[in-house]
Design a protein that fits this description.
- By secondary structure, the protein is an all-alpha fold.
- It is built from 13 helices and no strands.
- The chain has helices spanning about 10-80, 95-115, 125-135, 140-155, 160, 165-175, 180-195, 205-210, 215-225, 235-245, 255-260, 270-280, 310-315.
- It starts with 9 loop residues before the first helix and ends in a 32-residue tail after the last helix.
């Protein structure tokens, strides 16, 4: 018969239970702590991963933004280059009658603006005007006016000039440029005047254009201003303004002359030439017309080709309109500006 072990006292049993409960609690706490640490570690890892991802994305985003800005800037620059310039609204097509009326009104307006218009070459007789006009090619009237006093002091007549040595004549007219070609023309026309016209300048277009170096422009200058025979002088200024005013589309001077002659009465031809040339030299310049200071702007189809701001345009005005000396050393009595200065002594 087996012996039954003696029962443990109640106090011992209670203590054993407490110890077992404590051990289970400790085990549970350790497990919970482990899980918490694991969670924290995972959370930290996730956060670090997210930060790294954001950091990696940021430069890419910046690059994308910069690229977009660069592309936009390029597009804007390209658009600026290709964008058409601002233009003045086109005028309605006008009839021939309307154009002629407008042209004649421009002439009247120019007559009021330049009542003192005159040839801007100094001369006292037809021969001096003929020589000065030949010398004026490819240079300014001012330069011619500064050169001719010495020239005419040495050779005042065709006979004197025809007898001059080419080297001496070249020296006298050198400041006007192209002096060798001009010397050849002056010697030739002087000899022709001496031999064929008795030393006198002829008063007919047909005779003048037979002289060396003399074309229709030069002939019309001499006829209109030395003989009172009406003529249209088509120099670079006149041709430019005639096209801007819509009087012609031609480039050839003879064609321009014919087109303009058909618009105006013959009695107006000489003074019309002076007025248009005056306006071309003072206001309606080749490269930058002073549109904003032009009294005939409302009548001009080319308005807007130049400076339209009134203040800026006024600064572009030349000669007497700009408060500067004119081109003649001896201008007419009614000229409102200052005489040009003589050439400085060499």
């Amino acid at each position: 018969m087996k012996e039954t072990p003696p029962a443990k006292p109640a106090a011992a049993r209670t203590a054993a239970k407490k110890a077992a409960t404590k051990a289970v609690a400790e085990k549970t706490a350790k497990k919970a702590a482990g899980k918490t640490v694991a969670r924290k570690t995972a959370t930290t890892k996730d956060a670090a991963t997210k930060k790294a991802a954001v950091a990696a994305k940021a430069p890419a985003a910046k690059k994308t933004t910069a690229a977009k800005k660069t592309t936009a800037a390029k597009k804007a620059a390209s658009a600026k280059k290709t964008a058409p310039a601002k233009t003045v609204p086109a005028r309605k097509p006008e009839s021939r009658v309307a154009m002629v009326r407008r042209a004649r009104r421009i002439n009247r307006e120019l007559a009021e603006l330049y009542p003192y218009a005159h040839p801007e070459l100094d001369f006292t007789n037809p021969f001096e005007l003929l020589v000065a006009t030949v010398l004026s090619a490819q240079t300014t009237d001012l330069r011619v006016n500064q050169t001719t006093p010495r020239l005419f002091a040495v050779c005042p007549t065709p006979e004197d000039m025809a007898a001059m040595a080419p080297e001496r004549l070249e020296e006298l007219i050198r400041p006007t440029g192209f002096f060798r070609a001009k010397t050849k023309s002056l010697l030739g026309l002087s000899a022709a005047l001496r031999d064929r016209f008795g030393g006198e300048v002829p008063g007919r277009l047909e005779d003048l254009v037979t002289l060396p170096g003399v074309g229709r422009k030069t002939a019309n200058v001499v006829l209109g201003n030395a003989f009172g025979v009406p003529g249209i002088t088509v120099d670079t200024h006149f041709g430019r303004l005639a096209r801007r005013f819509g009087w012609t589309t031609a480039e050839d001077p003879d064609k321009v002359e014919a087109d303009v002659a058909a618009i105006f009465p013959k009695s107006e031809w000489t003074m019309l030439s002076h007025r248009v040339v005056f306006h071309g030299r003072r206001v309606c310049h080749s490269r930058k017309p002073a549109c904003g200071a032009c009294p005939i702007a409302p009548l001009c189809p080319a308005y807007g080709e130049g400076e339209t701001d009134p203040e800026k345009a006024r600064k572009l005005l030349k000669y007497e309109l700009g408060g500067q000396p004119g081109q003649r050393l001896k201008p007419p009595a009614d000229y409102p500006g200052q005489p040009a200065p003589p050439m400085a002594a060499p």
